[in-house]
Amino acid sequence: MPTKEEHIMMVAEKLFAANGYNGTSVRDIAAKAKVNVSMISYYFGSKENLMEELFKWRMEEGLNFAKNILENNELNEIQKIDAFVDNFVNRVQRLRDFFLLVHTQQVISQNKNIQNFLRTSKINYIEINQKIIEQGLETGIFTKKPSYHLLQCTISGTIFNAMHGMKMYKEYLKKQKSDFDEKHYENQYFQEASDHVKTIVRGLVGYQG
């Protein structure tokens, strides 16, 4: 059950993604969240602070899961990589509104705090993957040392591109497959994207299986 602050941020997330930051007012958020404008002011102070808290919350949520994977001694290194990719894909599918915001804010945001959240998050993800792969190289489960920052670009870039292209690829697949499964398309699509990324990563780190 989300807290009141989380509920407000989740509503704002959807409105920002649908209408843009400038196209969404505090009154819009309050009306959709069924709270008073004064409550938003009490918790966040301003629309800008609300956006910042939303980014901080979502980024910390993802990083905490990634750190838990790194520290899980019951998983070997390839299992950690798989869990990292699966979690990332799951978050992009489940939190599409937020990741649409991430994409737009990377390009147009003048908010230094949000830019810092994004920069710090990317660096942390690179460092987590680096530690996992270095452990795998030490144990011999991996045989290649990839470019760590480009590895993260490969993972995130492929998944973001898949997210943005989902509707377009749906039309393509409808024409290609006589047994196209409309009902389960989205889940199958993101599972295929996850498997595709894991195959690429296996090649980059020299995992033989």
UniProtKB/TrEMBL annotation:
Report the Gene3D superfamilies cross-referenced here: Tetracycline Repressor, domain 2
> Can you name one GO molecular function term for this protein?
DNA binding
Q: Which InterPro entries match?
A: Homeodomain-like_sf, HTH-type_TetR-like_transc_reg, HTH_TetR, Tet_transcr_reg_TetR-rel_C_sf
Instruction: Note the SUPFAM superfamilies from the entry.
Output: Homeodomain-like (SSF46689), Tetracyclin repressor-like, C-terminal domain (SSF48498)
Specify the HTH tetR-type domain's residue ranges.
2-62
> What are the entry keywords?
DNA-binding
Tell me which PANTHER family the record gives: HTH-TYPE TRANSCRIPTIONAL REPRESSOR SCO4008 (PTHR30328:SF54), TRANSCRIPTIONAL REPRESSOR (PTHR30328)
* Name of this chain's protein: TetR/AcrR family transcriptional regulator
| Species this chain originates from | Epilithonimonas vandammei
